[in-house]
Design goal:
With 314 residues, the protein is an alpha/beta fold. The chain has twelve helices and eight strands.
Amino acid sequence: MLGPSGVEVSRVILGCGNFGGIGSAPAFFGAGETEAEAHALLDAAWEAGITTYDTADAYGGGRSESYIGSWLQTKGPEVRERIVLTTKTFNPMADGADQGLSPARVRRQLESSLQRLGVEAVDLYLAHAMDSKTPLAETFGAFAELLDAGKIRAYGGSNVDADWIREALRCGAPACVQNSFSLLDRGDEQEVLPLCASEGIAYVPFGPLAGGWLTGKYRRGEEPPAGSRMTLRPEPYRHLDDGRVYDAIEALEDRARERGTDAAALAIGWLLSHPHVTAVVTGPRRPEQLRPALQALELDLSPPEHEQLAGVFA
């Protein structure tokens, strides 16, 4: 459950940021998964029991939402009624387009998202980033209006810090925080995770594999595989090209072999075993890449195992 909102999500959430692009970067709009490839991923996720799909208005310049919408049109009402949708707004939809969280823009962007998705409401609407130009009270006022109008069922923020959450609690009722968090990205452990836990806010991490680093695909002294994040958008991950990181990943692979699984599944299993993590967003590029997340659901790491694995990456 996402806090007290009444919105229930699957423990694994399909991240759709690569549908028709690579995230919100205008330079990659039109790249990423085609509509047919996106539909294949959505089918595989649904068949595996994943009911929750995460997108944003700017993913692929709107293509991600459109691809989900066209997929939903192929499904009967019994499927559509069980689908839980998250979308977000902040980033520009094209080079030079406006951005931010002003109330007028929030209302406009949600209407465009609903049209692309082909639905009357979304279950969770997130501020995709912190907006220094718009008071949060104004943004949350718009969110509250949309909630009252039945166009969203819950709201919250993504890529936010502890100060943002504290302000959010003063001006509204955030149900969910969605931030980057993994064995290689643990900045939220100090303040954000404890704050969400104490205030009853769902915490849903994305980037569970740190751009593919926790799969073991990047090897010491070797060129990154063609088409990988380190060849497309390496900037967020360059700091991981470090001997200590390679040591930790090799230790992760050893522990995974001991459990009869692989590094990716164990890394996601570590997140799912965290007492303050509600669900995990994973963004596979092909249906078979769902396997680690599904295996992770079966790992059931104990608290001591969770702590031991965290210590490897300390």
